[in-house]
Amino acid sequence: xxxxxxxxxxxxxxxxxxxxxxxxxxxxxxxxxxxxxxxxxxxxxxxxxxxxxxxxxxxxxxxxxxxxxxxxxxxxxxxxxxxxxxxxxxxxxxxxxxxxxxxxxxxxxxxxxxxxxxxxxxxxxxxxxxxxxxxxxxxxxxxxxxxxxxxxxxxxxxxxxxxxxxxxxxxxxxxxxxxxxxxxxxxxxxxxxxxxxxxxxxxxxxxxxxxxxxxxxxxxxxxxxxxxxxxxxxxxxxxxxxxxxxxxxxxxxxxxxxxxxxxxxxxxxxxxxxxxxxxxxxxxxxxxxxxxxxxxxxxxxxxxxxxxxxxxxxxxxxxxxxxxxxxxxxxxxx
Length: 334
Prior knowledge:
With about 325 residues, the protein is mainly beta. It folds into 3 domains: about 10-125, Immunoglobulin-like, CATH 2.60.40.10; about 140-235, Sandwich (Immunoglobulin-like); about 240-334, Immunoglobulins (Immunoglobulin-like). Helices cover about 10% and strands about 45% of the residues. It has 4 helices and 26 strands. The chain has helices at about 45-50, 70, 290-295, 320-334; strands spanning about 10-15, 15-20, 35, 40, 55-60, 75, 80, 90, 100-105, 115-120, 125, 140, 145-150, 150-160, 170-175, 180-185, 195-200, 210-220, 225-250, 255-265, 270-275, 280-285, 285-290, 300-305, 310, 315. Strands 13, 15, 18, 19, 20 and 23 form a 6-stranded mixed beta sheet that branches. The longest helix has 16 residues, at about 320-334. The protein is rod-shaped and about 110 Å long. Its main location: membrane. Keywords: Disulfide bond, Membrane.
């Protein structure tokens, strides 16, 4: 479960401008904490701060009005009031226009609208955040991954860290043994933090159509952790590999089939050659040979797509191969 959404309220009266800046969205897991980055701006703040007898931060729940103080106050820094939470700490320095606050042990019943209020005697300034709950899977980039064989690939996976003291851990699955992974906690432009993990590897044709998963695990003050994940399928472009000839026989007709792995495979072309001749004898995945043709020698195929070509690894003596095939078939039938 996550907590989200903060908005900015700005007022302007005559020469007085009051504003608070917070991220549009933050997330928090139940049983964990959430840090709300918060800054504010007040016209002539330095002069007002010097003249103020005190400067305090207050978080109100549900309503911005301050009439019913006791029922609405979740936190008051001046009176050490904390209601509805196990703990709330204002980590920002109000004298530096920083109202960043950490709410601990988030529960489902904390879903509500919250408003920040700055009190400077004799002045009072206010701003509004609106938290609510919403799960967020990690962001995996790029989300469309098509690369050529032997290309160095870098994937990034980021997961929000609403509680910097308990950031999520990121793990990767179904990746190459040679993959290099680095992970770090970073601050984003809106002052929220996320864990970024970067995974670098060299693409092999064996990685084609492999699903790579990034999993974010969030610790919390409960018996279980919470995990979310994102997956991307790797498409590797490569020339024909493992090209070979497969021999089958029906009656006096022998069929030679050219098999090869390639990507893309829908544009594979097959060319057949007879041993000792430079001119192709046929095109296509399969060729059929009659009994007379079988006695004439050996054949091989070449598979080709736009990324390259490969010949079958060795010549095949069709006469020897077919005789052995027929011998085994007859023995089996007997």
